[in-house]
Design brief:
Strand 2 and strand 3 form a beta hairpin. The chain is of the alpha+beta class. The two termini are 23 Å apart.
């Protein structure tokens, strides 16, 4: 993309734990909050697996472009969350202590780009039908592509390689890079490692 990545830790990140148990529910939560709140262009939204002694499930996070945008969302967030949901922004927490803590874990992981499966990211809406690896790397926020099974030292797939998006592309933050894992597909093409079914919450958001 023409807009460069900012450094990890620069964007304010809001974490939310609404008790979702799986990726399908977490995807739905993200789209619900996006529908309810005025998230600005350039927002990243991710899911995070939570594995603590108290909680097994999936939390979500939202990286906003700047502090002003994050504050605007934070001020409205409590009005759209259930009473038993938790949220965190910086050192602030909302909701029951347990879910507020797991929300903070999700926010921290996203802020430092150690992990997080991206559902919403710049130009994600362009990834429908068939694209090329070059399209992924130059027209969206994805900045690294890997092929499952290839050696780590491999240069990666050719820029002209065809990718069957299946209208469902979920890259992940890995070591500071928004990385999409691909697998070989029919006819010498590639496809995202994560398949559309059963993870999408509904056809409107796939």
């Amino acid at each position: 993309m023409t807009t460069p990545h900012d450094a990890p830790g620069v964007r304010p990140v809001i974490g939310v734990d609404a008790g979702t148990a799986n990726l399908r529910q977490a995807d739905h939560l993200i789209h619900h909050l996006v529908d309810q709140l005025d998230f600005p262009p350039g927002t990243f939204a991710c899911t995070h697996l939570i594995r603590t002694d108290e909680r097994r499930g999936v939390a979500v996070s939202f990286a906003l472009p700047d502090v002003h945008a994050a504050e605007a969302v934070w001020e409205r967030l409590a009005d759209v969350l259930d009473p038993d949901a938790g949220a965190a922004l910086g050192g602030r927490e909302h909701g029951p202590a347990q879910v507020a803590r797991t929300a903070a874990l999700a926010a921290d992981e996203h802020a430092h780009r150690r992990g997080g499966r991206a559902v919403l990211y710049p130009a994600a809406e362009r990834l429908t039908g068939t694209v090329t690896v070059a399209d992924l790397l130059t027209r969206t926020a994805i900045d690294r592509v890997t092929v499952v099974g290839m050696p780590p030292t491999s240069p990666g797939p050719d820029a002209s390689a065809t990718v069957l998006t299946r209208d469902h592309v979920r890259p992940e933050w890995r070591d500071g890079h928004l990385t999409l894992a691909l697998v070989p597909a029919v006819g010498g093409t590639l496809a995202p490692f994560e398949v559309p079914n059963p993870t999408p919450c509904c056809a409107d958001h796939a």
